[in-house]
Amino acid sequence: MDKDIEKLQQMIDGSRRIVFFGGAGVSTESGIPDFRSVDGLYHQKFDYPPETILSHSFFISHTAEFFDFYRQKMICLTARPNAAHRKLAELEAAGRLSAVVTQNIDGLHQMAGSKNVLELHGSVHRNYCQKCHKCYSAEEILNSTGIPRCSCGGLIKPDVVLYEEQLDSRTIDESLRYISEADMLIIAGTSLTVYPAASLIRYFRGSYLVLINRDPTPMDNRTSLTIHGKVGEVLGQIIVR
Ligand code: APR
To answer: For position 1, what pLDDT does the model report?
Structure first.
């Protein structure tokens, strides 16, 4: 076990209220590209910039094009949890981890068995009719064509926070509570460049602040431990005692 992993293991062994704060990099080892890495979604070429397509105003003005992109690029139902998702579920089951706070919308933490998952940016698994609020699955949206309509005729909208939209205040409040009460915060697979999500980590007051990220981030030199590596590989080496 290399010295960084050994240090991480000791911190985890000594913590009882761990919170995990993750981003798209947690799912790349499950085959879902992230956004800002060189091979990420935002470096791929489309008729419009992806950040434009994934905005509220584009959803309203170019609804059909939005759903073409959303079906192709945002719903990845063949992806399965990787070692990072599984280890976090194990830590929660052992009573050591109190919450996963994620910017991801893929539902892989829940698929791995995590129960307390706070989805800051929503989920592709919840799609609501704007008229009657009936909920539709990701599969139903994936199998639809053109603009998906509810049986009542209403427009179906993914429960995903688009640019220009507000995050759910209850999810933010709960995330802040867990982070402020945590004795250890593990941040992983995120460039920490999108707000307000990235600001939540400022509420951490505990002993161990750990960052596991492939590329450098603005937080690299402000942690108890920074590991530049793959979060699945790193957490896969941790023993839950
Ligand atoms: N292990 C660790 N880190 C990884 C891995 C991995 N296997 N794969 C990628 N990374 C790192 C990259 O180095 C990068 O710094 O994960 C980070 C992913 O950063 P982004 O692509 O910016 O994703 P994220 O931080 O989640 O973006 C936040 O931006 O577009 C919005 O709503 C979208 O939730 C997203 C938000």
So the answer is: 62
